[in-house]
D-2-hydroxyacid dehydrogenase
Amino acid sequence: MKILMYNTVPEEQPFVTAWMAKTGHEVVTLSEPLTVDNAGQAAGFDAVSTQQTTAMPAPVYQILAENGIKQIALRQVGYDVFDVPAAFSQKIRLSNVAAYSPRAIAEYTLTQLFNILRHNKQFERAMATGDYTWAAGGQAREIYQLTVAIIGVGRIGSVFAQMLHALGAKVLGVDPVYRAQNEVFIEYTTLDDALARANVISFHTPLNEETRNLADQAFFDKIQPGTILLNMARGEIVDMTALETSLNTGQLYGAAVDVTPNENAFMNQKQAVTDLPENIQRLTQLDNFYLSPHIAFYTNTAIKNMVEMALNDAVTLANGGYTDNEILR
């Protein structure tokens, strides 16, 4: 089978090569995301795979279908980049990699929580000016004293909850799906109750109409003063204007985000600081705000699994088979 792999990064290439040697299938890689302009390059291929934050509009699926493509295998969890109805109208099957490494994202979220609690940014900035005093950053809080609300208790949220529980934190879970096995380390509750009780709020939910702009000003008005916010999920979940206001008023003690709305304009790119969005320029000057370039997933284990699982699913779906990673609605 011949597979066209869009938006391939150098880190993926060794795993692509190993997968080809193991399976005997051929993979041709492109460095660009799948768009209307290059969808036609899939002509002559049996399957396609991509990872991207750039949306794929309806014409993409029509072009792929006209060239005999019956599926798209996404090498990531979030599939809001798909126009699912448009894909289905062209009889194109879709898949994502729902669990390439939940630990990677959970560990990174925990890392950023510790950064905020321990005032690491304040201390590092002070030391850069020669100030090595304890007062430069201030005293930290210990994690066992905290109540953490996890919004979205799927694979990643569940792993994060286990880590927090092991460290002694109280963990609240908000999710429409109840998982009995999580009761050992999570107290399931409502969103309003979680906001009222939590010292830390962490998002691990997909982006959909229910979660888009979920963390708006009304959301922040409900939280305890001095709460910490963590978002390693999707940028559009959090209203960044409301987040900035809440940091400046003290309603938020600190925040760490690995994703932002419209991140395609600057994430994974080199540019002058003055070319960044104005709100990002302001936020990154704050000692209690941590921004990272969508790297929570970025481990060797995760990249290996993303490549192998997506390519395996591409073969399966192109051959008319079934995979647990198929997106059905």
Notes: The CA atoms of residues 114 and 143 lie 8 Å apart. The two ends are 27 Å apart (CA to CA). The mean pLDDT is 96. The longest strand covers residues 252-257.
